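DM from R.C. (forwarded with permission)

"hey, sorry to bug you on a friday — could you get me a structure for this? deadline for the figure draft is monday and I only need the backbone to look sensible"
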Amino acid sequence: DGGFHPGVPGAMVREAATRLPDLQQARVYSALRVDWGSMRFSRSTVQEMVEAFRHYSTRVFRAGRWVEVGFRGLPRYDFGPPYGRITCSPMWLEELSALPEAVPALRDTGFYVSGFNPVMDNLVLPLIVLGTRLGRWLDKPMGHLLEWGLARSRPPFGVALVLDGRSADGAALRLRLDHEDAYVLTAIPPVACLLQYLDEARPGLWHQAQYVETGRFFADMGDMGLPLQVEGPAQVSA
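My reply, with the result:
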């Protein structure tokens, strides 16, 4: 279960814990700006995407427990240029489930994604998630709605993955990966994971984010043209 997401957010939290003692909060935000409108999807692909939304979960880790937070009060995260402030939706990734045990001080974590465009993120996505809950008889119209929303994509295109971390004493840390081509950010992480697997294959079934030794993982990604940008730790006000 690897690639960009899932695959990297959980590893970023684990890496942050090595850089910021007593990591208490670690939220990962994704700006995924792809030129969806230039793509042509088969009917089966559209239905697979609709099916994925049927199992969409807004679970995050808050105050030391997993909770479904829904689509109310969605955070607007400032990714900086060229993306600016974007509304992000919480999105559950199975790789996150192991983080509270791996990082004992952690009280708040989650993955927040902005994966399409303002029309999709603010209007179409919540409608599709609701529609899939009402029954499969809505799958076809939800598919048409999905295609319509994807066609609204506009520049700038690219992808960014940012972790904002904070310790109990107010120290802050930011980790960032970005690239103009989303497929590069999708391809490089599993290659970096495989380099470790080929050196020492461990038995069992793993998520990429849990398998890797994060220091080498991000170093190898940097060698392949996807460097991890680090800001902090720095003291911030509560």
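R.C.: lifesaver. The chain has a mean pLDDT of 88.
me: no worries. The domain at 9-235 is CATH 3.30.360.10 (Dihydrodipicolinate Reductase; domain 2).
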